[in-house]
């Protein structure tokens, strides 16, 4: 670099083209077998990086002799390091397409265009050497093509020795014209005399001349005949504007409706219920019915949700096909099949990606009830973005701040060239129980809704919440503005829908292997099933509730070996509503019930049963603003709230730490726990409190 005139401290940048390891590809894609040291040529992964990013040299060859054969799959070679690599394929990670590639021939053809030391190219845009896979000037305008061609001609004339003489003659004509215009003829000017004097004494310092610096007079040219003015053309109405619409704008939605994809029926279910049916069921008709009616036996796709399934699938598939990001807000009361429907959509998209029917993507599920704090969602998303396999290697040991910093840098640079080949594929995120991820500043929800709006992010967020008006009631304006216009609401189940759900499960129990005899009586009479469905539909429309009632009814009549009637269903409902625990909870005061609800919330958030008293007090203040019907400014003092806590301790609804060691601790460090059944407390508090309490407790 010294002989080319660059300073010694000039930073050196290198144009690199990336290769991709198989473990850096999206997880859900067309599966192939790879060698242990195999890399794939990224068809569009280029970047200009500083030279200090290059750590060492390696060898890449397309010869099969350099391949290290192994029987393991790609997921087991993530941490293997080599200095000699085998390349036989090129890949488009965004679309999941593979191309056969002869890397040795590609490299040889590229090196032929590299300038030698004797005939080096000028450092100009037109002289930049590109790899053969990039085509320059394809999208250039005609004016730019003409300018590039003139630049190429100028470079050709500079390299031609015959053109050098013509250039001297051209400069001499300029000099003669300048002399004629100055009127000095052939006599030297004062500046020229001064230059001659300087040439005799080059070591003496002199003041540089300011006259005529950088100004050259051009030779007069023959004026051209002006052209006849043309009639201005009217712009075409169907011309695409330069500014593309945002993913959730009205223009983008109208364009998607014109090219709406065909809605496919839900795929074959793969839930725990179908797995149990495929393995076979044992026992009589009542035992089989109790097994399939259990809430834990989740089907792959719920009945009566085909329309919602089609809307969610179409919305996500369009975003993956366009290569853009977006948010989809899914709302509905608990027990309406929101999460089960989204899981069915994700399974279908995985199948399509593996069969090359859809673009590949990475998938991560973030449940607000399964993480210790909302900030932990950053680490889970970063694992999916960077391709970390948590199932094999465990979760990454990274803090929430560092994960947030990496995600912000990744998505902010998504529209520009990044350092590295990763991040060119889409990522689908399911944010379940969105209510639990709301913080005081709402920064977690804001970041997850803001990143999909950035250009080139390819982040698709499926936000699932239990309330339809959560954005308008809780979210701030900046969060609500980034949520988008795609909202899908799951209505509560009606009586016919609840009947069809229970009938489908009972029919599956009869036809499972080994099948029951044809003369086997029904375990649940039609009138009993209809009564249970009507009772639940009039209150909440929760499918889990009607399944629980039917299962307990079948369990009640099992010793008698008779079909369950309406009277049996009424007895079960009365028992569930009038248990001693339910009667006790209905008689509690407002702040006593609110304290129990606060304890349940803390247990779900922390994941442990023993909670500090200070945390329960803090949650009580939050619920007081949300669930108080009267003036919430009437807050109980800490001493008054301690009296409420003592009353619950006296009735053995709560238990707390005791002993001398606890007495020396601060009052807020004392740990308490619930001494009642969690599901029963949630159900009764939801029935007594109404919709607000059910939404707050997620029941």
TrEMBL record:
Gene Ontology CC: nuclear origin of replication recognition complex
Subunit structure: ORC is composed of six subunits.
Pfam families the record matches: AAA (PF00004), Cdc6-ORC-like_ATPase_lid (PF22606)
Protein name: Origin recognition complex subunit 1
Keywords: ATP-binding, DNA replication, DNA-binding, Hydrolase, Magnesium, Metal-binding, Nucleotide-binding, Nucleus
GO biological process, one term: mitotic DNA replication checkpoint signaling
Family of this protein: Belongs to the ORC1 family.
Principal subcellular localisation of the protein: nucleus
Ranges of biased composition (kind: Basic residues): 208-219
Record-linked CDD domains: AAA
Taxonomic classification: Eukaryota, Fungi, Dikarya, Basidiomycota, Agaricomycotina
Location of region: Disordered: 114-271
PANTHER family: CELL DIVISION CONTROL PROTEIN 6-RELATED, ORIGIN RECOGNITION COMPLEX SUBUNIT 1
Function: Component of the origin recognition complex (ORC) that binds origins of replication. DNA-binding is ATP-dependent, however specific DNA sequences that define origins of replication have not been identified so far. ORC is required to assemble the pre-replication complex necessary to initiate DNA replication.
Compartments (UniProt record): Nucleus
InterPro entries: AAA+_ATPase, ATPase_AAA_core, BAH_dom, BAH_sf, Cdc6_ORC1-like_ATPase_lid, ORC1/CDC6, P-loop_NTPase
Listed Acidic residues bias regions: 159-170, 178-197
GO molecular function, one term: ATP binding
Biased composition (Basic and acidic residues): 114-126, 198-207
Xref: PROSITE patterns: BAH
